[in-house]
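Recall the central idea of this unit: under ordinary conditions, the amino acid sequence of a chain determines the structure it adopts. In this exercise we apply that idea directly, starting from the sequence alone.
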Amino acid sequence: MTAKSAAAAARATVYGYPRQGQGRELKKAIEGYWKGRVDADALRATATELRRTNWRQLAEAGIHEVPTGDFSYYDHVLDTSVMVGAIPERHRAAVEADALDGYFAMARGTQDAAPLEMTKWFDTNYHYLVPELSPDTAFTADSTQQVAALGQALALGLTARPVLVGPVTYLLLAKPAPGVAADFDPLTLLDRLLPVYAQVLTDLRTAGAEWVQLDEPALVQDRTAAELNAAARAYRDLGGLTDRPKLLVASYFDRLGDALPVLAKAPVEGLALDFTEAAAANLDALAAVGGLPGKRLVAGVVNGRNIWVNDLEKSLATLGTLLGLADRVDVAASCSLLHVPLDATAERDIEPQILRWLAFARQKTAEIVTLAKGLGGGTDTIAAELAANRADLASRTGSALTHDPAVRARTGAVTATDGRRSQPYPERAAAQRAHLRLPLLPTTTIGSFPQTTELRTARADLRAGRIDSAGYEDRIRAEIGEVISFQEKTGLDVLVHGEAERNDMVQYFAEQLTGYLATQHGWVQSYGTRYVRPPILAGDISRPEAMTVRWTTYAQSLTTKPVKGMLTGPVTMLAWSFVRDDQPLADTARQVALALRDEVNDLEAAGTSVIQVDEPALRETLPLRACDHPEYLAWATEAFRLTTAGVRPDTQIHTHMCYAEFGDIVQAIDDLDADVISLEAARSHMQVARELAGHGYPREAGPGVYDIHSPRVPGADEAAALLRRGLEAIPAERLWVNPDCGLKTRAWPETRASLENLVTAARTVRTELSAS
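Accordingly, the structure predicted from this sequence is:
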């Protein structure tokens, strides 16, 4: 096919779409089902209608080929585990008794069976359920869900493409099941898994699929020769099937690198590549292999992870370059639109001109369609859209919101000394022990306590004008009092105020910093039914006034025990926002760090002796390629130290991280120079404690003994067993006892019971230590 005919054949598509619905109907239905207010049929009906609504919106916008199989009740990797029959033995009876309840048991656990481990999906804030595999795993095909979704789309008269997690990525994301040797490599199961995928492909072909997309984002990471050979074998075998749909192998989030020639040679009909995060690298690599003659190329030229309008002319130039490199070039977002909110037009509180800088899922869909039209028919067919796009881009570039000379002068004056504590850790530790007088194995929580219905109602009433600010503050004051009282009665050693006044750990601060925009309806799935509204970091950042001092000092006035000041760190403020793309991330991080440094210093001046600066996103934001790690970790750790280094030696700095793989950033954790770090460890059975020990981590650490992402209440014996395992790696004088993460999403009954058990476990192990 010539470049001209490839352009004329250009089509618009997407890899996935937000699942929740305009009013988060899916979240409400699922949580209603868990609470017994919604039955299974009603839940399924809600899900079916949401899928239909998504497909209709996409088709009406001009998307030529809609995705199926991207919708999920909880997580698409968990759906893949169900599809291939990889059900943990502890959940098998529940799944066999009731498939839906068993599915949620794998995600959330039960009182008798722990859930699957949860961690971040590559470098996003989406969490997936980690497959558990063993040498004895027997895969079996169950394509029921995938076939049903395809049938529903086809029944609407749509062209549909099922989207599956690819077999290589699925195995690379998996871990050895509990009790299996840690050196077991799930990729050794590939030959056992491929026939199951072959059966699913056959089932989808029989159900009417012309194309099936197999997502292989793991191949954009550094891969060994053996892993690349496994990918080659997988697609040689699947491509060699005689009765199958056409195969589109998709990658995203970074450059494909050494995997590109492997997939280019594979007997598959198409590849999908990211031309936003790694446009130049993928273009060069594609040209180096001689393009994709005879194949379909789906070009991800619209950023599927951020919310800024696309530069249409730049994207058209990229698409024009690609025309001669494939038989057919289609236009798409760089990845699933799962990672952005649904519709920017729902926002009423953002200035109209600024709103034109933003593109959520529906607006990105329109951009994709516009680009496909322009690629196929020429720029004259989209002249009006191009003119409007140029005006929007120029408006943003020239806005006073994006440039504050005072902020830029301050960041330009930062020196290396500003990021160093005044004394080394051993001297600080001695000063802190003398000042705080904490027991061995001190107990604490991560920060937030349950956000009750009463709190959410009070917040809504304040927004609606049904109560005034004084009435709202009375409710917050009462909630803080209850949280402090509970912690004292339970016997926790370092308390928190519970964050009753905070809507979200990033949004709360963003709403008080200049340069940020907040949304009312910009919900994005983090995990399961947990949705967040990432703020938009649009301009230069500064802190007009103190943000947390008032409520922290009020809480401290209610107790003689230390109350932690709680802040969100600079890297997480970036990672869990939609961050500006018009300057280096390091520059933005330094601005945020200086604003937070002011808050840390004000907390200390107000008498706060323990200050926690959370950085759960430090690992999440780590680039996917190792060669990009040093630059990122240098500015990320500098930003944390810049935030925290201005305090006295006897002020104890904590940080917290959760739900990520920490082993490859232990040196960076050390470089933060925090006095205490708390980390998720319950689901991973203290793996991080062993990683810290292997590194020789010299400071204090609290690997979590209570998994807060499950409603189950861990017994005191279970928490004590995890604590003893932690002690195998970390000396008692440096070990803290705490949950994995904040308690915001939990209910009070399970929170009370779990924390009481946590304190009991700490006391039990203290007694054992004193007797030994």
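The CA atoms of residues 548 and 599 lie 8 Å apart.
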